[in-house]
Amino acid sequence: MPKTTVRAGSNIAFIKYWGVADAAINLPLNSSISMTLADAHTTTTVEWDQSGRLAEDAITLDRQPLTGQAAARLARHLDRIRDLTGMTWRARVVSENNFPMAAGIASSASGFAALSVAGCLAAGLNLEPGALSALARLGSGSACRSLFGGFVLWDRGDDHETSIARPLFPPDHWDLYDVVAVVSRAAKTVSSEGGHRLAQTSALNACRVAQAEQALPLVRQAIAERDLAALGPILEQDALAMHAVMMTSTPGLFYWQPGTVEIIHAVRQWRTDGLEVYFTVDAGPNVHLMCAAEDAPAVQTCLAALASVQDVLVSRPGPGPLCSEDHLF
Ligand code: DP6
User: Fold this and answer.
1) Residue 80 burial (CB < 10 Å; 0-12/13-18/19+)?
2) Which of 58, 80, 191, 322 is the most exposed, fewest CB within 10 Å of its CB?
3) Ligand 1 centroid vs 192 CA: distance in angstroms?
4) What is the CATH number of domain 173-315?
5) Pocket around ligand 1: residues whose beta carbon is below 6 Å from it?
6) pLDDT-derived band of residue 101, with 50, 70 and 90 as boundaries?
7) Where does 4-171 sit in CATH, by number?
């Protein structure tokens, strides 16, 4: 059985996935839309151990052997592939991110997308893209969107088979940039997995879900027309609504740091000054700034002047998962 290596991009959501209708299968409360990233990706090599010598899955992430809960989460995902194929072999998995894991870019999205594709191909299992998207969703919700390149819609669906992502527009449709301002590298205290279960404890949640569903066709149209002036206010509103839900859950989640607020104020001022840039924030303190390719250098220059910005990562829209012969072991 061949060793298989796959590279998958992370993604940034314009309409967020927050809250689960069924936590067991990461069935979301609302549909979401994202852009797959070219320059923030995970490469994963998988080999199933036919010799039967491996007693358990051997997983290395960013050159460190993975242990504890993180290893168990990946082993559970490998179990799903074992269940689909009926095989019992353990796997050797080596995975590398090209971006720091705590940089506020979803490493689990690219990670579970790469693991799903590499794991299935290495097992000789050729699932169609929708089934692969559903499989990746079981590992990490947002990973189902990283199964496709460019601009992607995840249909909320009703069950495991129908809650899948599909591509809306290819990566070269729009050269939109994601400039990520890193204000903290600390690992988050509450995982997204835990947070999704809390969403429905917020009185604001039902409003956000309704607003998100209404915004989807508008976001889709703004992307179709490459209209940042239409897209920007909607993505800011949904990010703020999601954080309002987080903050008002029981217990409340507060992912922002002072630097997050500094950047949000600065972005509003830069827009007043004529720079077309909008912000979104995932489940962490770091801020993603969306702008046209030609404005990305100016956005980076503006960010460099802010005391709270520790690092800046820049990404364009990228492709779906790609196979490679450059195996990691
Ligand atoms: C805030 O459950 O996909 O990024 O598995 O921890 O990466 P992890 O998170 P996941 O939730 C992502 C939530 C979000 C919004 C989004 O990407 O839609």
Assistant:
1) middle
2) 191
3) 6
4) 3.30.70.890
5) 13, 16-18, 32, 106, 108-109, 140-142, 191-193, 196, 282-283
6) low
7) 3.30.230.10
